[in-house]
Design goal:
Layout lengths: L1 E2 L4 E10 L19 H12 L9 E3 L9 H11 L4 H15 L8 E13 L2 E11 L2 E10 L2 E10 L6 E6 L8 E6 L7 H7 L1 E3 L3 H23 L2 H17 L2 E3 H8 L3 H13 L7 E3 L2 H10 L3 E3 L5 E3 L6 H6 E6 L4 E6 L7
Antiparallel strand pairs: 1-4, 2-4, 3-10, 4-5, 5-8, 6-7, 8-9, 11-12, 13-14, 15-16
């Protein structure tokens, strides 16, 4: 876990990257950006605001050797000699331009920044940030002209929103470093993470918690629901979330015994987990933050053809078992749900 509190922003290389497909050109700044002291905190906040919220860790990858990953190679040069920041930023600019070959990819300003004094657990490390600002905002500049105020309409970078960025932390270099990234303009899902950075998730407790809950949610919809009914499907996913919420460590064998309702479904679950590459993951520490985020994405609703929806609370999984009853009305020739309660809440 990193602490951003005392992070220092060092040198900045500042360029403009065009769209190769549209024949736009790059603009290269031949010197490092000389920013005013007053601008330092605003720039730092602009670069890091979105990244502070990111919990998923990535690392550089390559089909052969890490040195074949170009961004990894450029960044490693900066870590080894920060004086090469400008030179390596030219390489980053040209490589990003080479990936900008889809008509939807926007041109924008490119920042390559060297950061120091990042507290990572018990040590201080440096980092390299690569940021791209694509979205322009309209604003008014107010000027004093003798006895009259004037307004001038201008276009500029929206300081409240970073479009794309990553923070590459100088740790675990032999394993592809550790990276936080953000992409707020997902017009091309492959462009930033795959084509340019070429990074993959670090297989840690955050990744395994999130991936397993995604697996369980899909399994409940595609396997449990067709073989039982909607109520049993929700019971399964509710029990799964309850298991994660009440345990510090996930154990595949214990989970199967406590949650999976039958041997037939348990057998199918093993095959399903293999499709996710999680069949060999027997145990891992559960990440509370990843659990909270993943649980919000799980739909816990019963949608009926009569346009009525019943929503269950995943934070109280026993409620669906105790206060919801399914049956069949012979006279109506229809299924029904009976809901027990004491009073209506506003």
């Amino acid at each position: 876990m990193i602490n951003y509190k005392n992070i220092e922003m060092g040198k900045i290389a500042f360029h403009r990257v065009g769209n190769k497909n549209r024949g736009e050109y790059n603009f290269r700044s031949e010197t490092l950006f000389d920013f005013e002291i007053a601008l330092r905190e605003n720039l730092k906040e602009f670069f890091l605001k979105s990244l502070r919220k990111q919990e998923e860790l990535y690392q550089f990858q390559s089909l052969t050797e890490l040195e074949d990953n170009r961004v990894y190679r450029f960044v490693r040069q900066i870590f080894e000699n920060p004086l090469t920041l400008l030179e390596q930023s030219f390489n980053i600019l040209e490589y990003l331009y080479a990936q900008s070959d889809h008509p939807n990819i926007k041109s924008g300003e490119l920042f390559v920044v060297h950061f120091t004094d990042i507290q990572l657990d018990d040590e201080l490390v440096d980092a390299v940030g690569i940021f791209k600002a694509e979205t322009k905002s309209r604003f008014f500049q107010v000027d004093n002209l003798e006895r009259q105020l004037t307004l001038k309409g201008l276009d500029g970078i929206n300081a409240e929103k970073l479009d794309k960025g990553c923070l590459i932390i100088n740790t675990e270099p032999a394993d592809g470093y550790r990276i936080y990234t953000v992409d707020n303009n997902r017009y091309d899902a492959s462009y930033w993470i795959k084509n340019f950075l070429d990074i993959e998730h670090v297989r840690n407790e955050n990744f395994h918690t999130r991936s397993y809950l995604e697996l369980l949610d899909n399994f409940s919809q595609e396997v449990v629901a067709p073989t039982t009914d909607k109520k049993e499907q929700l019971k399964f996913i509710n029990d799964s979330v309850e298991y994660f919420a009440s345990h510090e460590t996930f154990n595949a064998e214990d989970f199967a015994q406590e949650v999976i309702p039958s041997e037939t479904i348990a057998s199918e679950f093993k095959n399903y987990a293999a499709d996710y590459g999680l069949d060999q993951v027997e145990t891992f520490e559960i990440s509370p933050s990843a659990l909270k985020t993943a649980a919000k994405k799980i739909k816990s609703e019963i949608k009926l053809d009569t346009k009525i929806q019943i929503k269950l609370d995943l934070n109280n999984p026993d409620a669906g078992h105790q206060y919801l009853e399914k049956g069949f009305d012979e006279e109506q020739g229809m299924f029904y749900y009976k809901v027990y309660f004491n009073e209506e809440l506003s």
